[in-house]
Amino acid sequence: VEASYVSEKSLASRTKDGEDVAIMMNAGLALDMPFLEQTGAEGVGLFRTELQFLIGSQLPSVASQEALYREALDLAGDKPVIFRTADIGGDKTAPYMDHGNEVNPAMGWRGVRMAVDRPGLIRPQLRALLSAAAGRTLWVMFPFVTLPGEVDDIRELLDREIDRSRRREKELPNDVKIGAMIETPASAWRADLIAEKVDFLSVGGNDLAQFYFAADRDSERVQRRYDPMNPGFLSFLKNTVEKVSRTGTPLSYCGEQTADPVTAAALIGVGVRLFSLPAAFVGPFRRLVRSLDAKATAEWLDSNMSQPQVTLRSSFREYLKDSG
Ligand code: PEP
Ligand code: MG
Questions:
Q1: Could you tell me the keywords of this UniProt record (predicted)?
Q2: Quick check: 201 and 244 in contact, CB under 8 A?
C-alpha cells in the first residue's frame, strides 16, 4: 500500500456534500488480513472462502476450514468479516468436484444451487463458520442467489447446523447475520423481496454484469464491448439500489469494477453507499469519495441515463474533471 494512502487511512470517507461511504475490502486468505490495518478498511465485505477449496487436491476438512475462519476473525479484531460460502463452479473449479458436462458452467451448478443440492458440502462449512465465530457475530453471505425462495432453503440448512451445535452444547456465535449476493438479473429484479429475507445484500457486479450483458466475464473479446458505464446497466443498478433502500436492508457492492475510478464514481452516483474492494483500491477509492459531490453526480447521471449510447465513460469523465 502506497505511503500517501497510508497517511490518509484515518480520514473520513465522506463526499464533499457530506455523504458517508463505507469502505470494506475483499479477501480470501489469512495473508490478506493485514491489509485491513494498512488500508483502514472498515472490515472484510467479501471473504471468498472457496479459495481454500480450490488450492487443495481434496475438500478441506472442517478443522482446516474452521482454523482459517478463526484466524481471519482474530486478525480482523473488532472489524467484521463477511464470509461468502464457497462458490465453486463457473470460473472457479475444483479438480475433485464433478459438475457433469456443463456447456455453460457460469450458469451452471454453483453457489447456493450446489449448496442446497449437496448439504454434505455446505453443512460442514457452516459448522466450521459457526464454531470459528463462537462468542462473536457471524456474518455469512450466500453466493449466486437467483430466487427469493433459495434464501429460505439455505436458511433451513443453517438452522439445522445451529441446532446440531446446540444439541452438542457447543458454543455458538452471539449473533448470526445472513446475506445474499445479487449476481443475476433475476435476483436484482426481485432484490426487494430477497432483502426482506436477509440482514444484508451485496451486489456481485462481476457476475451481475456478465449476466446483464450476456457476456462471459473471462472472454476478453466480449468484455471489451460492454462497459459497466453503459447507461442501461447503470440505470439497472440504480433501480436495484432504490428498491432495496426502501426495505431498509443494507446493500453493498463488491464487484471489482470499482478498480476503475470513473466507474466507482458512477456507482456512488447511482446510490451505493457501502463498498467492498480489493485492498489495493481502498486508498484511491477513499480519495475519490472525498473529491466527489454525490448529489451533483447523481443528477448528472440521471440526466444522461436515457441516452442510447454504448457508454457514458468519456462524457462522465469530462464531467468529473470539470467538477474538480
Ligand atoms: C462478483 O461476482 O462480483 C463477486 C464479487 O464474486 P466473484 O467475483 O467471486 O464471483
Ligand atoms: Mg460472483
A1: Cytoplasm, Kinase, Magnesium, Metal-binding, Phosphotransferase system, Sugar transport, Transferase, Transport
A2: yes
pLDDT of residue 324 exceeding 90: no
Q: Kindly give the distance from the C-alpha atom of residue 179 to the centroid of ligand 1, in angstroms, as a whole number.
A: 14
Q: What angle do CA 53, 208, 228 make, to 5 degrees?
A: 125
pLDDT digits (tens, 9 = 90+) for 84-99: 999 998 888 888 888 8
279-315: string of b/e by CB count within 10 Å (b at 16+)? Answer: bebbbbbbbbbeebbbeebbebbeebbeeeeebbbee
Position 101 pLDDT exceeds 90: no
Q: Apex CA 309: angle with CA 303 and CA 312, to 5°? A: 55
Of 48, 61, 173, which Cα lies nearest the Cα of 111?
48
Q: Is the pLDDT of residue 111 over 80?
A: yes
Pocket mutation for ligand 1, best pick of 206, 210, 258, 277 (most atoms within 8 Å of C-beta): 206
Nearest residue CA, atom 8 of ligand 1? 206
ipTM above 0.90, yes or no: yes
* Ligand 1 touching residue 183 (CB < 6 A): yes
Sequence-distant (≥ 6) Cβ neighbours of residue 96 within 8 angstroms:
57, 58, 59
Q: How far is CA 230 from the centre of its chain?
A: 21
Question: What's residue 1's pLDDT?
Answer: 77
- Give me the half-sphere count of Cα atoms (radius 13 Å) on the Cβ side of residue 183: 23
Model confidence at 244, in pLDDT bands (50, 70, 90)?
Answer: very high
Whether pTM exceeds 0.95: yes
Task: Please give the distance of CA 53 from its chain centroid, rounded to a whole number.
Answer: 19
Nearest CA to ligand 1 atom 1: 204
Report the amino acid identity of residue 168. R
Shortest-distance Cα residue to atom 4 of ligand 1: 204
| Mean pLDDT confidence for 269-287 | 97
232 — pLDDT class (breaks 50, 70, 90) = very high
